[in-house]
Structure formats: structure tokens, C-alpha cells
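User: Batch of two.

Assistant: Item 1 of 2:
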Amino acid sequence: MPRNLKMSEAKKSKQVQKSGDSSVNIQAGQITVGLTYEDAKAIFLDLFKSNFYQLSDIAKDTAQKRAEEITNKFLEELIKKNSQGLKNAREPDFQYALFTVQKEYARTGDKELGDILVDILVDRTKQVNRNLEQIVLNESLQTAPKLTSNQYAALSVLFVLVHTKYLRMVNFSEFSKYLERELSPFVPELVKEEACYRHLVYAGCGTLEFGSATIEAIFLERYPLLFVKPFPKKEVADLLSQEPNLSTIISPSPKDDNLVEPLFTEGEIIRKKALQLSIEASTIDNLLGIMKRHTMDSKEAKEYCIKAHPCMTILYDVWGDSLMKRMTLTSVGIAIAHANIRRVTGAQYDDLSIWIK
């Protein structure tokens, strides 16, 4: 790649560039280490002007306006989320990533794509050293423009279902809120067409496996005790009499005082809670054994999911009749999904490094 990310040699600058020990050369001249917001903006816009292909006057004006729009948006988000990232303005690899964003948005003007690219690019500014996350984010900037809204939605749903776990999933009400917040914004965009998922594979966002899991199986594995049906209090009467502190682990069902249900959705959480309360491990083993006997079967779990939120009817339909159920996300697919979810829901997801190691 030529110096200063020049994409064309049609016009060669005759400018003489000189710099001191702590400066960077670009075609606009010398920039010192201490970069202000306006300094960075000038660098970034000059970068676009110097490297984008020559277009007709109308197309050129449109491209320039779009480049300025996306650059301003990026700088605004960067100041809010990682102001130290301005220092990256001097780095060739970062300039290349920025130019990718400017170029792709200048071509399309697609607001959805622009927001996703900005989110990824802000994450990119946090990666100073060349590592796997930096490489994945760079690749994601190249890949996101190759996808449609339907494909962003599919990646987002797969990411939520397969790669995340909500730690406060304690009851049906919380499950309903979770589905509303994390899945319902994306489900209406899902499609069944095979080409949608094969293109995701082509773009490097996922792979197609031979086997598949049902949605209820995923939820049962992730939140097993959420699917325990309220069971007779008399079945745990002896345990409660021996260990009164069990009342902090199980509680009366809102539907019937004669029934009880777990307050936690994982056996490991219950074991940790029991350890804190000095409850015998054998007592917890017995309690978990009782709960297991009252776990919903697959059909009941599916009905439970559909009852929790209307979006699940659509998701089950698409999942059962498309390649979606066979797809596993790559690191690039995860990065794009991560950005899209934050764009749509405003959720402050954990740092991407949790999923890309």
C-alpha cells in the first residue's frame, strides 16, 4: 500500500514533507503529538480527500458530504466513549480502518451501516497493539458493508441465543422482559431464504454445522431452573424442617401457596448460596433432584417460550425452516452482531474481548 494510504497515483503531490521526532506526515502538512478534536477532524477529512476515487462533480459532492457526516459522528462517539483514542490519528493502520469507514459510507449513505461501522471503529481505537481483537475489528469493517439488514438481525439473534447469558433470569416475568429487550427488536427482520445464511458463510461471519439445537434446548441448557414447574411444598417439607435457610433458595409460588419454585436459575448458584448459608451439600443434592423431576419437557418448554413473548412464534418459525439453526458465528460475525445490538438496543454489552480471545 502506498504511503498515506493513496489509492490512486493519478495525481502525485509535489509537497515537500518534513517533520520532527514527534510528528506525523500527511498531505495536509505537519501534525504534532498533541491532537485536538479539530486537529483530528482535519486529518481524517484530508485522508478521505486524498484517497477517494475521482468522481463527477455531483457524485464527488455527495461523497464528501457523507464522509464529513460519518467522520463527525465517529468523533462524537469517540469523545464520549474513548477520548484517548484520538492519539490513534497518527497510526497508519488506524487511518486505513477510518478510510474504510469513510469510503463505504460515502458509497452508500446507509445510516444503519454507518452506525455499525462507527461502533466497530470506536472499539478499534481501544486496540493500540496488533492483536487478535484488532485484526477481527479491522476485518469486520471490511465485512459489514457486504451484509443486509436481515443478515445483521440474524447475527444478532444468534449472538444473543448462543453467546450470551443473562445473570438475572429468575422468573417468567424477567424472561419476558429479556425477550422483549434482547430478541424482539431483531426477530421481525429474520428471513428463511437459504441465500441469506450462505452469504453469511461466504462473508466469513459464520459456518454451517451438520447438527442443530432447538431454541428450547438452548434455553434449558442456559437457564435450567427457569423451566422447573412449581411443585408441591410437601415434597420439600422435610428438607425445610431440617434447613430453614432453604427458604432463601425456594419460595411459595405466586399461583398457589401449596406450591414452591426456585429463586435461582442455575444449580451452581444455588450451591454457592447454600455454602454461604452453611447448608449441607447433600441437602442441596436432594433439592436439585426434586427440581429436576419437575423440569418441563421440550414441548412444555417451547410453549413456555412462546407464552413469554409473541416474537418467539416468529423466531420458532424461521429457526425451524431455515439454515439459521445450523449456523455458528465466527469472530467477525460476533463483532458485527455485538455492534448491531448496541446500535439497536442501546445496551452496554461487555467488552468484545470477552468473546474474542
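Item 2 of 2:
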Amino acid sequence: MASERPKAQHEMFRGTKDLATAEVDELIGVIEFVVTKEMVDRSVWAMDDYNPWYLEASPFGGPIVPPTAALDFDGSMFYDFYKYPAGGSLFAKQEFEFVTPMMVGETYTLTGRLRDTYRKRGRTYFEMGVSVTDRAGVEVLRMVKTVATPVKPEPEEAITA
């Protein structure tokens, strides 16, 4: 019996909208999630950061969530909306603003929108703005994630306006 080959990264994503038609302020996705102890355990293991504030108690009234735990969701959101580009893509940068700690057991909503697109050095860059809010709608985290395509830059003379 032949085993199934592992899926290539571009086959894992389900997005259908072409990046060439992406529009600034476009809603990319909304994900509601509950922070579980298992989610926190996985995050602290991945970061190798076993701070007792994540695992036991904190000055905020209980265990808090490691700051980058919400990355489990934004990573797939972009390419669950947009079609993976034929030329591949690169992670370019990410910026965070932590407003208040997320708490274990609480429900949050992560909303992603396309903030900007621009060309630079033979690539097109896409900035996704992400906001995480609590049940009351209070923002707890802001993030900007930038991806660039294609992996191999286009020669500058091939770029048309």
C-alpha cells in the first residue's frame, strides 16, 4: 500500500481570491477562539519559556497567555482567504502591540484586514492588520504581519506600473 505524499505548503491553504485583486481594507477573516490550557502548554513548549505566569498564576488574576499564542490563528488566515501565489511567498516582518494580557479560559475574536500593498525590490508586499478583542469588544492585541511575493524577486525592468 502506497503512502500518501505530504502536502506541499501551497496545497494546505484553501484561499481562492487572487492576490492581484487584493484591495486595501478588505476583510480577510474573523476567528473566534477560547484560550485553553492545552494551547498555552503548546505555546510555552514551542518558545521554551515556562514562566509561572503562563502556567500557574499572575498578578492579573490567573494564568496569562504567552504574547505570541494568537499566531496559531493569523498564520493560516491570510492564505485561507487569498490563493497561494505561484511564485511562493516570504514572511517579511511582524509588529505587535500588546494592550493587555489574554487570559486562559476567555473567549477572543481575531479579525484580519488587508492594510496596505506596495512594491519594493522586485516583490509585492501585503500588510495584514490583525486586531484581537475580548468578549466585550475591548482590543487586547494589535499586530501587523507582512508577506512578500514572489520568493525570487522579479528584475526591476520587468516590473510595470
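The longest strand covers residues 107-120.
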